[in-house]
Amino acid sequence: MPDPGNRRIRVEALARVEGEGAMHIEVRGGKVEEVRLEIYEPPRFFEAFLRGRAFGEAPDITARICGICPIAYQMSAVHAMEDALGVRVGGALRDLRRLLYCGEWIGSHVLHIYMLHAPDFLGYEDAIRMAKDFPGIVERGLMMKKLGNEIVTTIGGREIHPVNVKVGGFYRTPARSELRALAEKLKRGRDAAVETVRWVAGFEFPDFEPDYEFVSLRHPNEYPFNEGRIASSRGLDADVHDYRDHFVEEHVRHSNALHSVIRGRGAYFLGPQARYSLNFDRLPAIAREAAKNAGLGPVCRNPFRSIIVRSVEVLFAFDEAIRIIEGYEPPPAPAVEIVPRAGEGCAMTEAPRGSLYHRYRIDADGRILEASIIPPTSQNQKSVEADLRAFAGQSLHLDDEALTWKCEQAIRNYDPCISCATHFLKLTVHRE
Amino acid sequence: MTCRVLAIGVGNELRRDDGAGLETVRRLRGQAGLEVREVRGDLSVLAGEWERADRVFLVDAVRSGSAPGTLHRFDAGASPLPAVFARGSTHAIGIAGAVELARALGRLPAALVVFGIEGRDFGHGEGLTPEVERGVAAAVLRIAEETRGA
């Protein structure tokens, strides 16, 4: 019989997450002594090979960082470049960007809710086994995901790594008729999203409510996608330009992704729960109502309930997409004209997994001199590890198999995108 | 009523031989009685792709230890795909997962044949290795033949 007070819980390759990572928990003398989320997927050096490229290439190059959330990379890239170039994009072009983001949130969130996270709650190893017992539910998820893909294809030109986004706007904007056809289908998607919130609200959730510092964008009157100030549940209210005054990245030995902390405080939490808890009052009535019926208050601290919050955001995204399409008038030109100039700019937008920060410095010809990209999963690593430490600590009565399952689930609560997260410190060689 | 036949190529042409499935269906474009599709990335959409097809050929690169360029053929309607198709995908669902998901949902087409072309080089870059070029040529011939026989 193994000693329950001294045990090692280790998963070499986490399942149902995007990318490659491991989990390591050491229990000694009945206490959790060590916790590591090990990101061993190799770093990808995007920031280095952006240097020397033209400013207009940033959205397409950075989109390649992720096959699940390429829009997030495109949006943070175009906004940061427009900031550097002194350009503002408004009106219908701004609306189309929000619409495109709705498509990505739907696709990414529905994939996580139905394929990656729900099997945890229903006791299945994966969605395929779950589909045998719940075919109608899985079909509903696939239908919603397909609608998310259709939005991205209609606005972005294709569903993965879209090709239609550019600094200043788009290469081509859709006719009203193209969007109208989509709106009817999206109404069915919105109904399915209401059903989804109801479905996941019926799952069982462990009692676990850490005192996170939530961080997300906050906009004066919108649920945030592309714009806003950086807000936190402990009173931070900062301009995105001052990001580096408040947040700092640090290297830890066991991860190929830099960790992030809020200066002077430590770990913070990004993603749907942070957005929701900081922006509940910005959700449309239909989403607030569904949240209320699902038993959520205006703040949700239990990370296992993130599946409900994600479902509420899917409902918001369908509703917002329909609203944008109904009011859509094609813009006079598909993009604002850009004249290159030297400058520095930054932006933060809300990727499905949380705030994604980009900063660029460009020269007078518009060549990129410096790029910095800070993805949400790398910023969440410290909170993931804090959750594992606290959650494993209160779950030590479970046998190894059950504890491992629950701890993996605690990681999946974040919908981590490990491939995105692997950005690494600058390598410097000192020679004597 | 005519029988609808579809060939779907899966893979990533930026990882050398992983583009074998896509290249196969590109060469089959224009073949009488056959529609072709290319699918990259998220394979949970596969069942939607073959929604109205009666007979489907699915083509991907595989790494099973056979000689590069070897053409494997599986009748996926009869039994689950072998482990070589379940190899690690950076996305949530790979080809075996997508086929099994469709099976669980009762959405397999009347006939589903999966061709695996044994790859050699899955590194960064475009272009197939010569052995895999020959594997692609063999797959094209075989699918054209089976389409005519359908």
Mean pLDDT of chain B: 88
The figure for the number of domains of chain B is 1
- Estimate the global geometry of chain A from the Cα principal axes: globular
Distance between the termini of chain A: 54 Å
The biggest sheet of chain B amounts to: 5 strands, mixed
Q: Which helices and strands, and how do they pair?
A:
The complex is a heterodimer of chains A (432) and B (150).
Chain A: E1 7-11, E2 21-28, E3 31-39, H1 46-50, H2 58-63, H3 70-85, H4 91-122, H5 127-133, H6 135-156, E4 165-166, E5 169-170, H7 176-201, E6 215-218, E7 229-232, E8 237-238, H8 243-246, E9 247-250, E10 259-262, H9 272-279, H10 285-293, H11 306-326, E11 343-351, E12 354-362, E13 368-374, H12 376-393, H13 400-412, H14 418-421
Antiparallel strand pairs in A: 1-2, 2-3, 4-5, 6-7, 7-8, 9-10, 11-12, 12-13
Chain B: E1 5-10, H1 20-28, E2 35-39, H2 46-49, E3 55-62, E4 71-75, H3 95-104, E5 111-118, H4 130-149
Parallel strand pairs in B: 1-2, 1-3, 3-5
Antiparallel strand pairs in B: 4-5
Helix pairs in contact in B: 1-4
What keyword list fits this structure?
heterodimer, A: 432 residues, alpha+beta, Cytochrome-c3 Hydrogenase, chain B, three-stranded antiparallel beta sheet, 44% helix, 16% strand, globular, disordered C terminus, B: 150 residues, alpha/beta, Rossmann fold
Short description:
With 432 residues, chain A is α+β, with helices and mostly antiparallel strands. Chain A has helices at 46-50, 58-63, 70-85, 91-122, 127-133, 135-156, 176-201, 243-246, 272-279, 285-293, 306-326, 376-393, 400-412, 418-421, and strands at residues 7-11, 21-28, 31-39, 165-166, 169-170, 215-218, 229-232, 237-238, 247-250, 259-262, 343-351, 354-362, 368-374. Chain B has helices spanning 20-28, 46-49, 95-104, 130-149, and strands at 5-10, 35-39, 55-62, 71-75, 111-118.
